[in-house]
Request: fold
Amino acid sequence: MAQRALKIVAFLGLAIAAAGLGFDLLPDTRPGLHSLQILIIISGLLISLLAFSSLRLLQRKVMPEFKSALFKALLVTGLTFVALELVLSAIGYQTYFPQDAPDEFVQPAPWWSCEDPACHYVQAEMTKACASGQMSGRYCIVNQQGFHDSQDFVFSPALEGRTRVLALGDSFTFGEEADIGKSYVETIEARLPGTEVWNTGIFGVGTNQALAAFQMFAPIMQPHLTIYGFYTNDFFDNLFPVDGYFVGITEAGEVVKLQQYHLDPWGNVTKLENQRMLYYRWSGVEAPANEFERLLGATRLGSLFLSAVDTLGKQLQFAQQAQFNRKLELTRAYLRELRDASEAQGSQLLVMLIPRYTDLGRPGDEFRLAIALFEELGISYFSPRDALDAATDYAPDWHWNNAGHQKVGALLSDCIQALSAGGALADCDYVVVP
Reply:
């Protein structure tokens, strides 16, 4: 009887290890070997090894009382687990995942779309949202193509005699925290009335969105100059497809923006396909990799284990290096494509490296890495770092305020004038041409 039980345990251990290897085949599961998966595989192999070793000892009758000892050990272990679970519950130890995660808690915002092929607003739906008071400010200035611009992106004969500029980027280019008419794009338009600027800035996007917007509108506009506002979080955003965010509306009418992809320490990316997974992120925790992890995280002991795994994962230097390499690889590839597409279109590309307020004193690692990348790829760039002041030019959420936007707009206006007069970015004093 004891031998049969040990055989069952041994094969169960192998089954656990095999299940760990096969997690990637389950729906909504992150690809690649993540930390929990590795621990499950190791645990299964150890269980199997222990059972096979015990079986061998039992068969040799080295331990005649092994059956009784094994039963006592299993009983003590089980009671210990139960006792620990009760103790953790009594002291208020929180489970890793919320136990009341609903299947639905927000409705997708009808005015947000990430199709054809870049993310954009839906003009008709945004008009309704603005009329009802749900949206306001510059979000209510949306053209037919779904971008924050007062005019549609269509070519007309009137554009032929004007300097044409295509602006790419994220919320800085969109004009977040600036009053209407005060963003850096609007400042350029006010200072240079003979210049046509199309603004394709969208919050929370990376270089992949900039590339998609260029490929969509550059053939129509035929810009003389393309300005891409690169913020250092673009390194992270480039890990995900362009639809990086789920935008929804709660029952109370609150607009929520949630990153809808999971990233493990190794840089593997998985889309969170349902709202229960998004709810975990809304609650401040990472979504489970699979149903087993969710059930494990619903217990206190399992939560303690997952917290330990998180701590271990943060200490794994090779995992951090793998994620860093992935960010760098993707950003390099997107920038190269944008550079090549600009050259093919006959548009000069200028990347504006947007500094974080912390970069104004001593540039951070990602800021310096971005410069090295631009120089490696031969991309012209400039940063307004020396012209900005953290105390006067940044809003509380660390976007630029009106003053910051207008300073940057003035610098870019000078550069556009130099380009119009001389035909080269090198004529702009503060632009670095590798």
